[in-house]
Amino acid sequence: MTTHKQQTTRPRRADSERTVRTILEAAERVLAANPAATMEEFARAAGVARTTVHRRFATREALLDELTGWAARQFADAVDAARPDAAPPLVALYQITANVLRVKTDWSYAMNRGAGDDHPEAARIHADVRATCIGLFRRAQEGQVLRADIDLDWTRRVYYALIHEAAKEGAAGGDPDALATRVVDTLLRGAGTSSHTGM
Fold first, then answer.
1. Do 84 and 18 share a domain, yes or no?
2. Rg (alpha carbons) of the chain, rounded to whole number
3. Are residues 106 and 74 in the same domain?
4. What three-state secondary structure class fits 54?
């Protein structure tokens, strides 16, 4: 039997989670424009009282840490949603690229902050995603989407660099699906003509 206390606790928890997300989304927008922004500016952008922000996050650093972890979790979810272990490799590669570009565009400040090893959760997630990427590229080799003689880690680094550049265009209003197509096409076909491949 569901008690009255259980019924009232769930809506309160949902309200609290929505408030936290609103604060984090506002902080991301503000920090992307001004990395030195204050808690008061986050509150103003979120449309909540400063005390509400402080009730959820004791310090600015605590908010930044949660923002970094939040973005990293969105990143992991974006990769997992593409079913990299089960979907056909080319389909998974395209879908991961489009999904990740959306996350990197929406959470650019937090994603850049989580790129190092200073945030243990983000570092673990990024390491897991790297391993997933290598696994997908290995499947792509087996499916003859990628050449059998390529260096998988080098290919991953080139792929990451392409996504990084595409994310800049995404931040400027570029369409993630069109940018994903460009990234995958560049990765698979390169910039040279077929007569010069293998030179």
1. no
2. 20
3. yes
4. helix
**Predicted pLDDT at 6:** 53
Q: Tell me, yes or no, whether 95 and 166 share the same domain.
A: yes
Flag whether pLDDT at 36 surpasses 70.
yes
Look up tokens 């929505």; give the residue: 18
Please check whether residues 25 and 115 belong to one and the same domain: no
Q: 32 lies in which domain range?
A: 9-58
pTM of the model: 0.83
What's the structural domain count of the chain? 2
Are the C-beta atoms of residues 160 and 75 closer than 8 Å to each other? Answer: no
Query: Could you read off the pLDDT of 187-196 as tens digits, one per residue?
Result: 999 877 765 5
Distance separating alpha carbons of residues 62 and 54, to the nearest angstrom: 10
The CATH number covering residue 94 comes to 1.10.357.10
Sequence-separated (6 or more) residues with CB below 8 Å from residue 105: 167, 170, 171, 176
DSSP letter string, 30-72: HHHH-TT--HHHHHHHHTS-HHHHHHH-SSHHHHHHHHHHHHH
Q: Can you say how many angstroms the Cα of residue 38 is from the centroid of all Cα atoms in its chain?
A: 24
Assign residue 26 a region (left: φ > 0; alpha: ψ between -120 and 50; beta: otherwise): alpha
